[in-house]
Amino acid sequence: MIRKEDVIGDDLKECACCGKLTSNPRFCSRSCAAKTTNKESPKRKITTKCTRCDNLVRNYRSTLCTSCFEQRKLRFKNELTIGEYRTKQSVAGRHGTARISWKGFA
Predict the structure, then answer these.
(1) Mean pLDDT by groups of 10 residues along the chain of 106 residues
(2) For the chain, which residues make up each domain, given as ranges?
């Protein structure tokens, strides 16, 4: 840590985040700069709607909300046999360990 007594001149500034003395005009480190920037700028909000019920989706990669996803998961677990699941187009070309590792059948 830099002390005022050790440096000659008035070129030291106080960090906008933590208050340490620094020769940088605003921040003492990249960490302090990132903390301040993240507080000032807004984060991305999830605006995508569920394809079934128009609620907001679980995350930016999803197309279903939490309740529709749970209903779909239960439907697969209750209605499909292991053989039907393995012959599905989304699973058919995968390695054998990937085909049997689905949570509903493992």
Answers:
(1) 56 91 93 91 82 87 88 76 73 67 50
(2) 4-40
